[in-house]
Design the sequence.
């Protein structure tokens, strides 16, 4: 039996990473564990905000989409998307909601920025439905947490930065 334990991406303890389904987490450990008779190399990722810990086998890192924090160029692309005009398709909300969820769970900061831009409502515009608000807040939180790590600031500061870009 041949085991693939190495990944194309090298992760180190203390690195911030993005897990598409949960957002930004911190690698707390890379360890070997014996599970069901075979030894697996696992990346242990902590999500402080959700009080959650994930153990991901090294062999599955690429297939689950675990990645390092985006580079500055990718984040500037995402911030430029926020400056654009909202593109809301004229399809049923349930279909749009599903597309938005897929973009958020892709882990791609540019796609998440598109969701934030499309669902942003300034104070003087029409009310959002509960589900619109939930999706918007989830996307804003994901994007803000990655921007915070890139800019080395707090999530609150990153959220303020994103909202100020959107308000223009």
Sequence:
């Amino acid at each position: 039996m041949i085991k693939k334990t190495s990944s194309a991406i090298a992760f180190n303890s203390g690195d911030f990473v993005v897990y598409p389904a949960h957002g930004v987490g911190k690698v707390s450990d890379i360890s070997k564990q014996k599970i069901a008779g075979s030894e697996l190399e696992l990346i242990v990722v902590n999500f402080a905000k959700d009080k959650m810990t994930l153990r991901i086998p090294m062999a599955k890192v690429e297939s689950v989409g675990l990645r390092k924090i985006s580079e500055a160029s990718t984040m500037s692309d995402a911030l430029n998307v926020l400056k654009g005009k909202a593109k809301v398709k004229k399809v049923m909300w349930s279909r749009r909601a599903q597309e938005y969820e897929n973009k958020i769970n892709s882990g791609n900061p540019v796609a998440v920025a598109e969701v934030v831009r499309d669902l942003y409502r300034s104070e003087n515009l029409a009310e959002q439905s509960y589900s619109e608000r939930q999706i918007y807040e989830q996307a804003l939180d994901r994007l803000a947490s990655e921007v915070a790590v890139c800019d080395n600031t707090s999530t609150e500061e990153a959220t303020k930065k994103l909202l100020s870009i959107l308000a223009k």
Observations:
- The two ends are 58 Å apart (CA to CA).
- The longest strand covers residues 23-35.
- The beta strands are 16-19, 23-35, 38-47, 52-57, 67-68.
